[in-house]
# Entry
Amino acid sequence: MSNTIKGQIALVTGGTKGIGKAIADKLSSAGATVIVTARTEPKENPNGYYFIAADLARPESAEKVAREVLDQFGKIDIIINNAGANLSMGGSFSSLTDEHWDNDFQLNLMAAVRLNKAFLPAMIEQKSGSIINISTYAAIQPLWEMTMTYSAAKAALNAYTKALSFEVGPKGIRVNAVSPGVVKTPLMQDFIEGIAQSSNISVDEAFRSVMNRVGEVPMGRMGESEEIANLVAFLASPEAKYITGANYLIDGGLSPVV
# Structure
């Protein structure tokens, strides 16, 4: 993948840790100039990526990010909508409030919708671009007690990805989704600890509970962030120039769907 996207400008939202950081590093190693966003700037930025502080769950943030990127770099070639999280930490239909639903949809769906909308005119003008929306295995296998609002928001993101690919494909822009399974990230650790706290059980018990509900991973382990990044970098590159409107599961064989 070395230098396959040399000279391209890539934006990775939520790009300071976990899967987002791994994607930023991989795109950089493939030759791209990388911009990352997060709510707060990391204490260390060893790779020197251009950083924009933004809470993308807030409607005004997308225009701010797009304006700064285009002012500073003059174009955008790759958008990785990675920012997302399971904000409700689970609950039944009766315990989830409108605020829970709105929070998850704002971050996991509308952040990508608004950011793409802000950048697409520039991509359309240059007649090229690649958008990759990071979804989740939970969108096709929701766990009612853990991921109801998150799964619904990401399922909507999948449908949006497909619809947008039809609209902008003739204009030279590819739109795909990547759906990781259970991946070893700081966000996953926070998720497990949140379940442990809310259920008054140990972290180990919470992890076993999640894995029992998710099911057995045939490859026998959680995924690594770098493995997700490898797929994303391929989809962003010219080597995937005939791929659009697809949703790639990368879950160690966890999904029972053929």
In short: The longest strand covers residues 173-180. The helical segments are 18-29, 61-73, 98-126, 148-168, 186-199, 203-214, 225-236. The radius of gyration is 18 Å.
